[in-house]
Amino acid sequence: MVSKSPINPKRIRRVPKQFSWLDHRLVRDGHIERFSHADGLLYLFLTIVGDSQGLSYYGDTSIMKRLNLQPGSLDAARNHLIELGLIAWQRPLYQVLSLDEAPQS
What we know:
The protein is 36% helix and 10% strand. By secondary structure, the chain is an alpha+beta fold. It is globular.
C-alpha cells in the first residue's frame, strides 16, 4: 500500500456543508470564471479521483489520455490551478486544496 502525505496539510479539503465535493464557492467566489476549459477538466478530474484528503497519484500520460489533452494544455492547466491556489503538485502527487484560504487574484 502506498503511503501518502498531504503536500499542504493546512489546506486539506473537507466536504462542504452543501451536498457535494465540488464546493459551491467555486461559482459563488468567481473561481470558475478564471478557468479555461482545460483548467476545469483537470480540476474536476482531480476532485473525482482524489482521496478524502484530495490526494491522487495520476501521471501526466494517464491524465492526458483520460481528458484528451495535449502536454502543453495539461502543463498550462496545472500551472494555472496552482497559481489560483486551488491545487498543489509535487510530482507525482496532486492535492486539491481547500478553498478556505485560497488566495484571491
